[in-house]
Structures are given as C-alpha cells and as structure tokens.
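Bench notes, afternoon.
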Amino acid sequence: MDSDQLAELEAVIVKFYSPHDEQCFFDWLGRMECVRRFYGCGDTLYIVIDRALLSRREMHDLLGFFYRYNISMTQLRVLETPEFSRFLRDRDAY
C-alpha cells in the first residue's frame, strides 16, 4: 500500500441521536471498502481512505455518510480525480 494513496479525513464532534445511531455510524464506516482504518483522538475521529479502493459507489457512500452525520464535506476535495470531479462539483448531486 502506497502512502500517497491514503487520505486522512476528520469527523469532528459527531452528534449521535441514540446509541443505535452511534452503532449504525460505526457499522457503516466499517463496511466501506475504501476505509482503511479509523481512530479517535479527543473529539475527532480520523478516517483513513485508500484512494485505490475508491469506486463511484464508495464515493456515493462517503458523500451520504458525511452528509448524514454532518461531517465537513469540503475535505472530500482531497479525493477528487477526473473520474469524480464533475460529480463532486455538482451541488445538486448531494
């Protein structure tokens, strides 16, 4: 695994509405193939993405995940490639 292929994203102070919601958050995060690992420090959860495993489906999942849990979506720009550029820049897409 090439470290240039990895991107570290941050989820700061994620709000959960119930214990089940928190479980769903981590279950969803754990099912995304592009998520290499995640770990917390203080009020921040770091999510390490493997760009080599990032498919269109995975990008849709990341967008939905970040939107659902109110995680800053601007940081997804680090994942922009020609394949995803048009999609990421379309505000009507998400």
